[in-house]
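Colleagues,

For the teaching module next term, I've prepared a clean inverse folding example: a structure given as tokens, and then the sequence designed for it. I'd like students to try predicting residues themselves before seeing the answer, so please don't circulate the second half yet.
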């Protein structure tokens, strides 16, 4: 029986791309570097903050260790000061999550974003304790697609892989779910496209929250 839904954060549960682009570009501009188009950030994000800054500087062909340290510091400081600026819940998603909760499903978030802003932005947009568990990148835990953090979440809830569904918007998410042997749902309202999700091994792909409800409800009904 499906008991737990594990969600990615950026591009899945929250539309954060304008937030990321805003703080990242401000950090670049502060050091005399040309900003990057917002849409490009959809392909730079997904593997954690450190890798985001490295990819930004590589994109502008100006990477140095000294510049990396400065841009990382400026980005992280500004983001943590106002994590919800320009961030929104995707249309219709809150209602779908409410419906999952009404079924008795537990909801968790696993993100490669640092833990502090992950928990803070979820609490600000959804309210404290709306999700049953939220975690970002923590010391000692490898980044996704390594499934270690997913196994940790499953252990916390006392569930097996066949009692879970994993939902995300990138190949990294699909690889994470498959590595944990969990049924994976790719969503098209996030940062990447259908081809990437299919190549990532998504068991099913949905284009809007209503379809997400149908996909997970189908798995829930099959497991009864």
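(Answer key — instructors only)
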């Amino acid at each position: 029986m499906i008991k737990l839904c594990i969600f990615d954060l950026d591009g899945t549960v929250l539309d954060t791309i304008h937030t990321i682009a805003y703080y990242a570009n401000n950090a670049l501009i502060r050091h005399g570097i040309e900003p990057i188009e917002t849409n490009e950030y959809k392909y730079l994000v997904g593997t954690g903050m450190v890798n985001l800054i490295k990819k930004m500087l590589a994109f502008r062909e100006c990477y140095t260790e000294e510049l990396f340290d400065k841009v990382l510091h400026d980005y992280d400081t500004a983001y943590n000061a106002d994590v919800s600026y320009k961030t929104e819940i995707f249309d219709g998603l809150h209602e779908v999550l409410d419906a999952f909760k009404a079924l008795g499903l537990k909801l968790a978030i696993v993100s490669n974003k640092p833990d502090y802003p992950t928990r803070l932005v979820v609490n600000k947009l959804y309210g404290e304790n709306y999700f049953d568990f939220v975690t970002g990148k923590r010391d000692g835990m490898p980044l996704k697609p390594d499934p270690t953090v997913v196994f940790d979440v499953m252990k916390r809830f006392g569930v097996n892989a066949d009692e879970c569904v994993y939902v995300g918007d990138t190949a990294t998410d699909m690889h994470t779910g498959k590595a944990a042997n969990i049924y994976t749902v790719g969503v098209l309202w996030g940062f990447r496209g259908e081809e990437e999700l299919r190549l990532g091994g998504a068991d099913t792909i949905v284009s809007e929250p209503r379809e997400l409800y149908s996909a997970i409800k189908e798995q829930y009904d099959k497991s009864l």
